[in-house]
Specification:
- The protein is mainly α.
- It has one domain.
- It contains two helices and two strands; from the N terminus they run ββαα.
- Strands 1-2 form a two-stranded antiparallel ribbon.
- It comes from Candidatus Hakubella thermalkaliphila.
Length: 103
Amino acid sequence: MRDHKDESGNKRGFKFGEVLGEKTDEELKEMLKSLYADERKLSYQRRLIHGRIDILKEELVRRLKQKLERGEAIAEDLDIEDLTRILAHPSPPLLEPDINEEV
């Protein structure tokens, strides 16, 4: 069970698996408040990470466009070798759906 902590990192003194029927309304409200705070922090971190991902992707696109403008190859030898190997490898047979099968 996970201990919940306040903004300063101190344990709030409960574990989520405790018997909720034994808690007062105020204790339940405090637990809920703590979980909402945790969710806001996670959501903020997720937005930061996605923003950083977007920035990195845009930088890669910018660099590829520059290479194209200069007439440089955008695929490296390793990419070509990997693609050749993948395409040369036999693929598994495609399964056709059974249209008579009941769902």
